[in-house]
Specification:
This protein is 73% helix and 2% strand. With 513 residues, it is an all-alpha fold. The radius of gyration is 23 Å and the shape is globular.
């Protein structure tokens, strides 16, 4: 059995190295660059417009409220997507990237996010354009549909599009159980136990502490109530929790930054310096220096940005497609803001807090010897706020990770729906909820490593779909800009389905959006 597991781990390492190695980084950044260029650097050239149409419109009743059956509001779609992307990676993951890749990793995290904005934008407009109503009158969209009906519409590629859609759905389902469920619950359990119950010698049940069982059972009951209530309940939960947890985390981070205001200049100097200069180079050929830069700040920063906002994986588009929005480009702009909020705001807050902690030498870029990057943020908050600071980080991890589970439950259910229909979704949700308690009591890391691989494999068929549909992305963007920004009187492009196109076009013309 041991040899079998070792072989499985070895095979997974090879596949994971492919799925999350330089191939993945180049593919993701390349797609983001292409989507940025073909849309005329939309995230910059139309900054005022997309900002006003997203977070700037959050108080508008059409943005926050929804009356359409089978849909959620634009703000709820954003919060549910952020619920799945803002997770433990925004805290411990950013700290790990800095400890491994140095302060320069933050710069490359920003680059990945800047390009990822337009990847997410493209995914979302394609998701809205190719979505359709299922048998329960709920919107269904995602990479599987623009692979099937987009890529599959090209001559001779119908079967290819269908096969890639099936592969994407399978990878999404498998990833939802691991990274999107048990892995998050495991991290919650470990953090709560460490922060609040480290001094309690609880009895063991089946070799696992009773505390783990209690935490797991509690999370399973709460999660089951939310998940089995459907998307409306998940979206309602996310709408209340995500803004609260993000704002609270940013405020506490800002307090730490203000207390270390004198170090801010040195922090940003180190970020830009070590983005292009390897840490503590003692000599060697220029080739080795370049390799140190690529394998250090570049790789770790880009991977953290990609892991954090999931732009390019095709995950969040499955909930953005449930929005009550009629304009594909409008939901695409929410995708831009999603990446901005997740990486540029939350991850940057974590990064600057870590770099002002004193645990990273800003002159050499090296981390303190024996540093535990998993608890670095908690230590930094503890240094400022005392024990309550560590408790706050533990609670932040709880909320971040738990909402991630809620968001991924929807992603997995949409992938199941594509493969097996809406009846299969009910069975999936029950299994998903029951698997939550497993995350609290299992300790093997192999399951998490394998699910991380499936998470990465999702991106390959998804990006094939996005790249194949770039001409359509250009047309949809130009159509929107001509109508909404330049004021031209032309027919809107809203859906591949003629019936939906006609219905939505009439609503848009009558000012319903």
């Amino acid at each position: 059995m041991g040899n079998l597991l070792e072989r499985v781990a070895a095979i997974n390492d090879v596949v994971n190295g492919f799925a999350w190695g330089w191939f993945a980084i180049i593919l993701l950044l390349g797609t983001g660059l292409i989507c940025t260029v073909i849309t005329g650097f939309f995230q910059i050239s139309h900054l005022k417009h997309w900002w006003g149409k997203t977070i700037g419109s959050v108080l508008h009743k059409n943005t926050r409220h929804n009356k359409e059956e089978g849909a959620v509001s634009q703000f709820q779609a954003l919060c549910t997507a952020l619920a799945a992307t803002i997770g433990t990676g925004n805290i411990a993951g950013v700290a790990a990237a800095i400890c491994i890749g140095g302060p320069g990793a933050v710069f490359w995290m920003w680059i990945a996010a800047f390009l990822g904005m337009m990847t997410n934008y493209s995914e979302n407009i394609l998701g809205i354009y190719f979505r359709r109503k299922n048998s329960e009158n709920e919107w269904s969209g995602g990479a599987m549909y623009y692979l099937q009906d987009g890529l599959g519409s090209y001559k001779g590629l119908k079967t290819v599009g269908k096969v890639l859609a099936v592969f994407f759905s399978i990878f999404a389902i498998l990833a939802s159980f691991g990274i999107g469920n048990m892995g998050q619950i495991n991290k919650i359990t470990l953090n709560i136990e460490s922060a609040f119950f480290s001094n309690i010698n609880a009895p063991a049940i089946q070799g696992v502490s009773a505390i783990n069982w209690i935490i797991g059972l509690t999370l399973t009951i709460i999660g089951g109530f939310i998940i089995l209530g459907g998307l409306q309940r998940i979206a309602s939960f996310a709408e209340r929790v995500v803004p609260f947890m993000a704002i609270a985390y940013v405020i506490c981070s800002l307090i730490i930054l203000l207390l270390h205001i004198g170090s801010i200049g040195a922090v940003f100097a180190a970020i830009f310096k070590f983005a292009f200069i390897p840490r503590a180079v003692a000599g060697g050929a220029s080739g080795s220096v370049i390799k140190m830069i690529l394998d250090g700040p570049v790789k770790n920063g880009c991977k953290r940005g990609i892991f954090s906002n999931e732009a390019g994986l095709g995950s969040s588009v499955m909930v953005h497609s449930n929005s009550n929005v009629k304009e594909p480009v409008k939901q695409g702009m929410w995708g831009i803001f999603e990446v901005f909020a997740d990486t540029i705001i939350v991850c940057t807050m974590t990064a600057v807090v870590v770099l002002t902690s004193g645990y990273i030498d800003l002159s050499t870029g090296l981390a303190a010897e024996g540093l535990d990057d998993a608890t670095l943020v908690a230590k930094t908050f503890g240094n400022t706020f005392g024990k309550p600071g560590e408790w706050f980080v533990a609670l932040a991890v709880l909320l971040f990770a738990f909402t991630t589970v809620m968001g991924w439950s929807h992603y997995g259910s949409k992938a199941v729906e594509y493969l097996f229909g809406v009846k299969g979704v009910k069975i999936y949700k029950v299994i998903f909820v029951l698997m939550m308690i497993s995350g609290a009591v299992l300790t093997s890391s192999l399951a998490w490593d394998i699910s991380d691989t499936f998470n990465g494999l999702m991106m390959i068929p998804n990006l094939i779909g996005v790249l194949s549909m770039t001409p359509l992305v250009v047309k949809l963007t130009k159509n929107y800009v001509d109508r909404k920004i330049k004021g031209l009187e032309i027919e809107p492009m809203l859906s591949f389905d003629p019936d939906v196109q006609e219905e939505h076009a009439e609503l848009v013309k009558n000012g319903a959006e």
